[in-house]
Design brief:
This protein is 44% helix and 9% strand. By secondary structure, the protein is mostly helical. It folds into 4 domains: 170 residues, HUPs (Rossmann fold), CATH 3.40.50.620; 154 residues, HUPs (Rossmann fold), CATH 3.40.50.620; 57 residues; 101 residues, Orthogonal Bundle (Arc Repressor Mutant, subunit A). The strands form 5 sheets. The chain has a 3-stranded antiparallel sheet with strand order 3-4-7. The protein has a two-stranded parallel ribbon with strand order 1-2. A two-stranded antiparallel ribbon has the order 5-6. One of its GO terms (molecular function) is zinc ion binding.
């Protein structure tokens, strides 16, 4: 069996988004699972839209995701160059071969002429197929038009037949070439069309498996015809399912074009995002969902991909109905995240499983970005900060969410009455006595700089219960509210230990005063 070779071939006309990233991931995983090669090729023949900025953005995104390509830009390889704009001489050579063999021909039809014919067909309710006007031009007629300086394209001479595609995901798919017609393989600017260039490149780069989105299935018969015209071996095809939003509708450009780098900036790790994308249209043999990238590399099989649409449930599309998510800031994008998405669940699992030192290193930039922790204390050697972060990570779906928690430990406590009037624990008649009793217990624990011992905190809560006659939820929730100003968070002894004596007494005193003022 020959070596398995897959490729990812993005166009640098914008950001790498989830659809493209999933295609790259599936090609990467399949190559690795089969001990094959993964090739990166840049399809930049769209000169009007391709930019150097987009090229670098795509490269940076793939590097963050961790897809090491065996051949391609920055790596090289025996089948280069790996940018289509540097391969024009190759397409020209093979195009001339097709013309010489009468399998392609020059077409001098203008864009306006073709648009007019297309509109006429559409008005009749018919699909547009090129009418073959230039198909029968004689060599002399072609030479005369070229001498006149008329712009021309190259069209493939499509044979009348049925093209049968055996797809690893979609099964057997049949196409009638009468609905395809003679299609353009080289544009008037000399740049190869997608369907032509991709075939030449895939053949010369020895690509054995073409794995891509089902939206490309309609391109496949054209590509098969070109393979056959050259007498080349046709690769194995695998067209994976489309991706839909949480509303079960195809992702719109507004909602599906969010840059992959935005998920990095929100605080998702590449480990979690890759795990999530792997499940968009594929399932593991044993039904597992939480997996490392190493596990995915070992078990991925494109034949297990589903035909059914895969749901990208990351955003609350009802809330973001009129919003272009590709254009908003990271802070605004965060407000449209769907809290109960599978991505968030997987991300939390990966954050919990990260080795402590790695977790601290990954989250420190997000901690620094909050501006809450003094710069001199924002480092991996700060034991107090380290304790806070390691305690809080079970609550984090993204590393960026740390900003919701740090203020408690570093900023002054300024309670607002309106935030507590609806709480049954704050409204209770014994809230003041409970808070006062807890304050006295805390004040007895060492000096103001002491760390509160967790066992001592538990003893203090029990003592408050005996003094006030409270127990169970009224006791514990009342103490939590009085000493932290919150009704949720870390286990209370851990929480108060991390806050420290000074901050706990500050909160208790201010909550007592707030109750008196209510």
């Amino acid at each position: 069996m020959s070596e398995i070779r897959t490729r990812f071939a993005p166009s640098p006309t914008g950001y790498l988004h989830v659809g493209g990233a999933r295609t790259a991931l599936f090609n990467y995983l399949y190559a690795r699972s089969q001990k094959g090669k993964f090739i990166l090729r840049i399809e930049d023949t769209d000169q009007a839209r391709s930019t150097e900025q987009s090229y670098h953005q795509v490269i940076d995104s793939l590097k963050w995701l961790g897809y090491e390509w065996d051949e391609g830009p920055e790596v090289g390889g025996p089948h280069g160059p790996y940018k289509q704009s540097e391969r024009l001489h190759i397409y020209k050579e093979y195009g001339e071969k097709l013309v010489a063999e009468k399998k392609a021909y020059p077409c001098f039809c203008t864009g306006d002429e073709l648009d007019r014919k297309k509109k006429q067909r559409e008005a009749m309710g018919l699909p547009y197929v090129y009418d073959g006007k230039c198909r029968a031009l004689t060599p002399d007629e072609v030479a005369e038009k070229k001498a006149q300086g008329l712009a021309h394209t190259l069209r493939f001479r499509t044979p009348s037949k049925e093209v049968v595609v055996e797809d690893m995901v979609q099964g057997t798919v049949r196409f009638d070439t009468a609905l395809i017609g003679d299609f353009i393989i080289v544009k008037s600017d000399g740049f190869a069309s997608y369907n032509y260039a991709v075939v030449v490149d895939d053949h010369l780069m020895d690509i054995t498996h073409v794995i891509r989105g089902v939206g490309h299935l309609s391109n496949t018969p054209r590509q098969v015809l070109i393979y056959e015209a050259f007498g080349w071996k046709v690769p194995a095809w695998a067209h994976v399912s489309e991706i839909v939003g949480s509303d079960h509708k195809k992702l719109s450009k507004r909602h599906g074009a969010t840059p992959i780098t935005a998920f990095r900036d929100l605080g998702y790790t590449a480990r979690a995002f890759n795990n999530y994308m792997a499940l968009l249209g594929w399932s593991s043999p044993d039904g597992r969902e939480y997996m490392s990238i190493a596990e995915q590399k070992s078990i991925f099989d494109v034949a297990r991909c589903s035909k059914s649409p895969a749901m990208f449930d990351v955003f609350d599309l009802a809330k973001a109905a009129e919003v272009d998510l590709a254009q908003v800031s990271i802070s605004e994008l965060e407000t449209y995240l769907f809290p109960k998405s599978k991505l968030n669940w997987l991300s939390n699992q990966h954050i919990r499983a990260t080795p402590d030192d790695d977790f601290i290193a990954e989250i420190l930039p997000f901690v620094a970005a909050t501006g809450v922790v003094p710069s001199g204390e924002c480092n991996a050697d700060n034991e107090r900060l380290r304790g806070i972060l390691l305690s809080l990570r079970v609550y984090l779906d993204t590393l960026g969410q740390i900003k919701q928690y740090l203020a408690d430990f570093y900023l002054p406590f300024n309670p607002v009455l309106e935030n507590y009037v609806s709480s049954e624990y704050f409204a209770a008649e014994n809230f003041s006595s409970l808070a006062g009793a807890m304050l006295r217990q805390i004040e007895q624990m060492g000096d103001a700089t002491d760390t509160l011992e967790q066992n001592a905190i538990k003893d203090a809560i029990n003592a408050v219960g005996k003094e006030t006659g409270l127990k169970g939820k009224p006791l514990f929730m009342g103490v939590r509210l009085a000493s932290t100003g919150r009704l949720e968070g870390l286990e209370l002894p851990v929480y108060l230990n991390l806050l420290g004596k000074g901050r706990v007494t500050e909160r208790l005193s201010k909550m007592v005063a707030l109750k008196k003022a209510s």
